[in-house]
Amino acid sequence: MRFLHRLVLRLGTQALLTIIGFALAHAAPGDPAELILRGGGNEPAPEAVTAMRGKLGLDQPIPAQYFSWLGHIARLDFGTSFASGQPVASEFLDRLPATLELTGAALLLTILLGLGSGLVAVRRRGWTERLIRFAALMGSSAPSYWVGLLLISLFSVKLGWLPVAGITSWQSLLLPALALALAYIPLQARLFRASLLAALAEPLARVAFGKGLSARAVLLRHALPRALGPNIQALGLAAGQMIGGAIVIETVFSWPGVGQLATESLLRRDYPIVETYMLVLGAGFILVTFAADALQAWLDPTARDVLLDLSEAA
């Protein structure tokens, strides 16, 4: 029942994430009612602030506000933005395609460059292997916002090849997608290389070599399918982390996605949007990693117990 066990754990993580997101949003300094009333430039009267807090539902105790919010979420009512007065769901739907486009492009770069580099490192050892190890160390230690600023400085400011920020053409996607993917490409390359080497050391591969198959044929027909399983899980985790890490990249590149919306809303103390962002972030991570587990179960013969749980759950 590994499938159900993972499901329970991830649902528990989602519940915990809603509590953390709700607490962090309300712990930020500043009163949303005061910020709204100060929009006209005047200092609001205490009576007006009190009335606005009651209108926004902020006069209730924090636990009461949390359970009220959960009740609305259960009815798929995500509330109304404090700042714009628009439904939170419509604001997210307007921004979500940009975030999906960014994370999808970053994941595609991770697959192509990460798995491709790992495959090359198996066939050509030596300096290629050392280069991948060095890139993995640098990629995992460099902050994504710093990488993004370096890419802007090089390709946009100095060379003038690509747009600095925003969405002006398809070229605007290249730098933010690369900045988001660079932290994962070297790690995927190292993992894929290690998985390929382990698969080539298995008895099945040795038998294939004994039958006279070429190294290329053994690598592509026998080792490659066996090595994809661990990388699929790792790619699922990377995709989930990209959804969360997109908030930094979207802020650096002024990319109009839900991450930038969450940053702007946090500065405005727009609680409904911040809380919904944390909810969507957790749900997206669970769905992506769940899909990766299911795909690995179909590709990896050693994951039959997961397949049985999937069939029983269906």
Detailed description of the structure:
The chain is mostly helical and 314 residues long. The protein has helices at residues 2-27, 32-37, 46-56, 62-74, 88-123, 127-141, 144-158, 174-181, 185-200, 203-210, 215-252, 258-267, 271-299, 304-313. Helix 1 packs antiparallel against helix 13 (271-299), helix 5 packs across helix 9 and helix 12 (258-267) runs antiparallel to helix 13. The longest helix is centred in the C-terminal third of the chain and has 38 residues, at 215-252.
Helical stretch count? 14
- The H-level CATH homologous superfamily, spelled out, is MetI-like
Uncertain regions spanning at least 5 consecutive residues: 303-314
Under CATH, the topology can be stated as MetI-like fold
How far is the first residue's CA from the last residue's CA? 13 Å
Q: Under the CATH scheme, which class?
A: Mainly Alpha
Secondary-structure-based class equals mainly alpha
Count of the domains: 1
Query: How much of the residues is beta strand, in percent?
Result: under 5%
Number of strands: 0
The mean pLDDT is 78
CATH architectural type: Orthogonal Bundle
Radius of gyration of CA atoms, rounded to a whole number: 24 Å
Based on the structure, what is the oligomeric state of the protein chains? Answer: single chain
